[in-house]
Specification:
Keywords: Cell outer membrane, Membrane, Periplasm, Transmembrane, Transmembrane helix. This is Prepilin-type N-terminal cleavage/methylation domain-containing protein. It is a single-pass membrane protein. The protein is an alpha+beta fold and about 150 residues long. It has one domain. About 45% of the residues lie in helices and about 25% in strands. The protein has 2 helices and 4 strands. The chain is rod-shaped and about 95 Å long.
Length: about 150
C-alpha cells in the first residue's frame, strides 16, 4: 500500500501541503466550535479537580471540628478543677462523679475520680489534701485526662 497522495510524491506533498496541514492547530475554521469529545474531556477534568478540592475541604472541616471539641473539653475540664479548688474542703472530697455534657454537638462524659487507687503514692489523700483526676470521654475514647493534687494551707 502506498502512503503517497495520487499524483504527488510523498516528500514533495509533505513539504508543499502536508506541513501546513500538520502544523495548523486546528484543521477547521474557528467558527465550528468544540467537538463533543473536547467538551466531555473538559467536563471530566473539571469534575476530577472539583472532587479533589471537595475532599480536601471536608478533611479540613473534620479536623477543625476535632480542634473545637478538644478546646471546649479543655475549657470545661479547667472549670471542673477550679470548682473543686474553690470548694476548699479537700478532706471531704471522696465521692466520684460522672456527668454527661453536650460539647460541640457530641455527648461527652466527664468522670471525676477523687483519690484514685492508681494515683501516685507520694500524693496520698488525707484530711487536708485530695488527688483529683477528671477524664473526658467521647464514648470509650479518652479526649482529655487532667490530674491535680490540692492541699489546704
Amino acid at each position: 500500500m502506498s502512503n503517497q497522495i495520487p499524483g504527488h510524491s510523498g516528500l514533495k506533498w509533505l513539504l508543499e501541503e502536508g506541513c501546513e496541514f500538520m502544523l495548523s492547530p486546528r484543521n477547521r475554521s474557528a467558527s465550528q466550535g468544540l467537538t463533543l469529545i473536547e467538551v466531555l474531556i473538559t467536563i471530566m477534568v473539571i469534575g476530577v479537580a472539583f472532587s479533589a478540592i471537595a475532599t480536601t475541604m471536608l478533611s479540613y472541616s473534620r479536623g477543625n471540628q476535632q480542634v473545637i471539641l478538644k478546646n471546649e473539653v479543655a475549657r470545661l475540664t479547667e472549670q471542673y478543677m477550679e470548682k473543686y479548688r474553690q470548694a476548699g474542703s479537700y478532706g471531704t472530697m471522696r465521692t466520684d462523679t460522672v456527668e454527661n455534657v453536650t460539647v460541640a454537638g457530641r455527648s461527652i462524659t466527664f468522670q471525676t475520680d477523687f483519690c484514685p487507687t492508681d494515683g501516685p503514692t507520694t500524693m496520698a489523700c488525707d484530711s487536708a489534701s485530695v488527688y483529683i483526676r477528671v477524664t473526658a470521654l467521647n464514648g470509650t475514647t479518652v479526649i482529655q485526662k487532667t490530674e491535680t493534687f490540692f492541699t489546704a494551707l
